[in-house]
Amino acid sequence: RAVQALPDGVVILDSANRIEWCNLTAEGHLQLDGRADLGQNIANLVREPEFIEYLERSKETSVRVTRDHGLALSLRLIPFGQSQKLLLSRDVTQFERVDAMRRDFVANVSHELRTPLTVLVGFLETLQNLKLDPQRQRDYLGMMQEQAARMQRIIDDLLTLSALDGAPPASSETQIAMRPLVERLKSDAEALSAGKHKIQVSMDASSDLLGVESELASAFGNLVSNAIRYTPAGGTVTLAWREGTDGARFSVEDTGIGIEAEHIPRLTERFYRVDRSRSRETGGTGLGLAIAKRALARHEATLEIHSEPGKGSRFTARFPARRLASRDKELS
Ligand code: ADP
Asked: What is the pTM of this model?
């Protein structure tokens, strides 16, 4: 019963690698039938070449195999008794997934930084090697500054992400008054738009939001700046704060370029962009929504995205009722 309760798979093999017994976890991992497969040679049932090789030679301490039902397993043989063996299996699917994500992430960061760095180095070489007139020199320096600023934005965003990743849930001690926050977001939007868009606000304001103001302001600000950046001149951007019995929501709606359905589930992945060059031209790092989603999650909020290509998008942050405090309570 004790072995049955282990989270690892356990198979007892005899001297000829025949199955004497296995626990339920091993049945699941290795797709064995605890009754019908007794007495069978395990090599006939688990046929992955890496495993067969390991079974015959067992030079390594363990072997990784991926089973056809998608599980990644770490298998380990341990001799015991006269000539029997214990075969232990551990599910490492999640570990491998995280490892692959980590590798992807490092590759992405390097790629993102390499592009502006290459441009920067190119200009530096030109400035060093060619005698340029002062105007040309100034132009080149300006472009170098742009690339350096871009690298700085990427690094700032990465640091913000990593700070959010390890952080515990945001405390509920501070009450954030929504009206001034939304007004600030509106004037930021107007500054960014420079008169090219119509910016509207619609709001209820009987409750305050509980959390860390700087994080929420930056998450909401990202949604607002995206709405401006991805909406052509003449479009409308609407900021709304709505309260209900089951919580409240902050939404940003635009009449911009919209997003094809296939991209929507991936938008909050780090560095995911629908159109790389459009994002870059407007100073995007591809990290804004990843940061916003994490900051919202720390406040128990979810991010919903509705969009139609050519018509516009709506990004909604939904907060549970426990993240609200009534304004009256604060006044009394
Ligand atoms: P970026 O810095 O590229 O804007 P984000 O993480 O903020 O990065 O957004 C990821 C991608 O989602 C953007 O590159 C863009 O393709 C898409 N996107 C975000 N907001 C909008 C929007 N309001 N309208 C259309 N596309 C958007």
From this structure: 0.81
Look at ligand 1, atom 18, and give the residue with the nearest C-alpha: 226
Mutate to test the pocket of ligand 1, among 115, 273, 305 (most ligand atoms within 8 A of CB): 273
Task: Decide: residue 203, CB within 10 A, 0-12 exposed, 13-18 middle, 19+ buried.
Answer: middle
pLDDT 10s digits, 87-127? 999 999 999 999 998 999 999 999 999 999 999 999 999 99
C-beta of residue 271 within 8 angstroms of C-beta of residue 112: yes
Ligand 1 centroid from CA 187, angstroms: 20
- Residue located via tokens 């019995």: 245
**From CA 135, how far away is CA 90, in angstroms rounded?**
65
The residue nearest atom 11 of ligand 1, judged by CA position, is: 273
- In 166-202, which ranges are continuous DSSP H helix? 178-193
